[in-house]
Design a protein that fits this description.
By secondary structure, the protein is of the alpha/beta class. It is 41% helix and 20% strand. The chain starts with a strand and ends with a helix. It holds the Pfam family LDcluster4.
């Protein structure tokens, strides 16, 4: 069983380029045989789940009890798991995944990316693959060489798809 986890903004307009790319990302990962995990709410998490749903794949949402009280539900999830803490949520998002794909996001997305990058860099999960999608990531000047050696950055989903088997 192959598992991929996606990270991305909880607020993304359904008509946005990123949302449409999220749907295509969900489809692509399912077609490649992955069970997909995400944060389980709206925005890009919903978009990825929708893509998985549309082709009959499996998408598991890992939600937070506190968030669940005020965030709209995601109708495209195959299963939703609620946890009590952000730490537990992040642990379940990471556990068992071999591929991590991040679209544009905010502080939560960056936290998730840096955690998996730290696990890879520190040798605790040396075989995971971390993909950052979007020009957004190339524009951040805070990344050092150690970080950049542990991630792949693609401007578009199409570019990632073309390079999927090569890496």
């Amino acid at each position: 069983m192959k598992v991929a986890t996606t990270f991305g903004a909880s607020k993304a307009d359904r008509g946005s380029v990123e949302y449409q790319e999220g749907i295509e990302l969900g489809k692509f990962l399912s077609q490649k045989g992955f069970i997909v995990k995400c944060g389980g709410y709206g925005g890009l998490m919903e978009a990825v789940s929708k893509g998985v749903y549309e082709i009959g794949g499996t998408c598991i949402g890992i939600g937070l009890e506190e968030f669940d009280r005020f965030r709209p539900s995601n109708p495209y999830l195959s299963k939703k798991i609620l946890v009590k803490t952000l730490y537990e949520r992040l642990e379940l998002l990471i556990e068992g995944s071999e591929l991590f794909v991040a679209q544009k996001g905010s502080i939560g997305t960056l936290n998730e990316i840096f955690m998996v990058a730290a696990l890879k860099y520190g040798g605790l999960k040396p075989n995971i693959r971390i993909v950052l999608l979007g020009e957004f990531y190339k524009s951040l000047n805070c990344f050092d060489e150690n970080f950049l050696q542990n991630v792949e950055i693609y401007d578009t989903l199409t570019e990632f798809e073309r390079n999927f088997e090569r890496v």
